[in-house]
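Colleagues,

For the teaching module next term, I've prepared a clean inverse folding example: a structure given as tokens, and then the sequence designed for it. I'd like students to try predicting residues themselves before seeing the answer, so please don't circulate the second half yet.
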């Protein structure tokens, strides 16, 4: 039987390689796409427009409700295993068949966008109404107010919860193993099946996730200090 130390030394490079090749890219790409979706969804939900725009608002509300009300693992299974059975003649005669990478990023992005949309919406609402009125009084348009005044402040307010969402997303990428993406957790499972040391392998991959999330937490703290350096400290 191999020694535990030898197992760790021989397995760590494989897990690290999977993290660099799959885990980190999936998390970064999904978060960027999800953040774009979140900003657009939050702005749609906050818009006072009526008429045809009400349909768009209803879609935004339904999207957020759907992805916040169902488990991420179930969403992954629906997108990867379920959509191929959605056959519509003339449109998708063979169903919607996505490769694991595309299905994973699509699901993680949509899930992240739904949660971050509420974070961004709350951050925008936290900005005093007087700032809108002051900007309008000097002739600024609504897009200008959003771009120059509201969104920069909302970004600072939403930074801690958005950072937490990204850290959670990094950990959630382990679910990608369920749709055959060879990320860190999947690699640890494969190695455990070979050396019959599941406790060692799962502890090792947990340590990798812990290190990654610790580094991200430090980065979060640094960004919070940088974005709050002009604020007056509370007495």
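(Answer key — instructors only)
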């Amino acid at each position: 039987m191999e020694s535990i130390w030898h197992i760790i030394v021989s397995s760590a490079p494989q897990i690290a390689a999977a993290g660099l090749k799959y885990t980190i890219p999936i998390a970064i790409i999904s978060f960027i796409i999800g953040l774009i979706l979140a900003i657009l969804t939050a702005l749609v939900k906050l818009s006072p427009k009526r008429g045809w725009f009400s349909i768009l608002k209803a879609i935004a509300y339904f999207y957020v409700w759907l992805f916040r009300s169902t488990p991420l693992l179930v969403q992954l299974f629906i997108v990867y295993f379920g959509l191929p059975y959605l056959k519509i003649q003339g449109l998708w005669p063979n169903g919607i068949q996505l490769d694991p990478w595309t299905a994973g990023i699509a699901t993680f992005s949509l899930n992240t966008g739904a949660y971050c949309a509420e974070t961004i919406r709350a951050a925008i609402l936290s900005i005093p109404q007087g700032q809108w009125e002051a900007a309008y009084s000097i002739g600024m348009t609504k897009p200008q107010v959003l771009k120059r005044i509201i969104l920069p402040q909302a970004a600072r307010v939403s930074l801690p919860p958005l950072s937490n969402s990204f850290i959670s997303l990094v950990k959630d990428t382990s679910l990608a193993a369920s749709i055959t993406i060879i990320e860190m957790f999947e690699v640890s499972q494969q190695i455990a099946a070979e050396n019959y040391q599941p406790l060692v392998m799962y502890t090792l991959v947990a340590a990798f996730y812990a290190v990654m999330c610790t580094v991200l937490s430090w980065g979060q703290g640094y960004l919070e200090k940088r974005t709050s350096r002009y604020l007056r400290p509370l007495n």
